[in-house]
Amino acid sequence: MSIAMLLEGALPVGVSMWKLTQPWWEFVLRALLVYGFLLVLLRLTGKRQVGQLAPFDFVMLLVLSNAVQNSMNAGDNTVAGGFILVATLLAVNGVMSWLTWRSKRAETLLEGRPQILIHNGQLDEAMLASERITRHELMAAVRQAGVSDVADVRVAILETNGRINVIPLAPQSPAAP
């Protein structure tokens, strides 16, 4: 008699905790498909979604994770299935990280490019609209940089991670007597 058979009846959780209901490779395939699908959708929604989470954005991410759970595990709630999914997701995330580090083209495709929102005190309204950033969000970043007026900003850049970096204009030096 094997140890697995002994444990199956003796403990509330036994072999059933480890016995997959689907082949292992199906978990890997499902995780890759869901990861890719979410990556594309989140990339299409813009940088703001990732870097500056409003409460509704945070709730959306939580709901998304719950929504895709069954599509990844196919109703299998075993520990082994969870381990396979976690390992697959961490591995694909590591590959994506390595790929974006290695290839400028992959980095641009997957993460996008920084966008200039203010240049020499001139606000780019079209860029704000395309990135779905409100004036309030932009002004909060400007104030955080210690600047009170857009006219005093040399450049404000929406980075690929969703953060807005602000570089103020150099202060005018007083005229020499």
From TrEMBL:
Keyword Transmembrane: yes
Membrane topology: Multi-pass membrane protein
Gene3D superfamilies on file: bsu07140 like domains (3.30.240.20)
Transmembrane feature ranges: 27-46, 78-101
Ranges of residues in domain YetF C-terminal: 102-168
Pfam families: DUF421
Keywords assigned by UniProt, alphabetized: Cell membrane, Membrane, Transmembrane, Transmembrane helix
Cell location: Cell membrane
Recorded family membership: Belongs to the UPF0702 family.
PANTHER family, alphabetized: UPF0702 TRANSMEMBRANE PROTEIN YCAP (PTHR34582:SF6)
Name the record gives this protein: YetF C-terminal domain-containing protein
Origin species: Geothrix oryzae
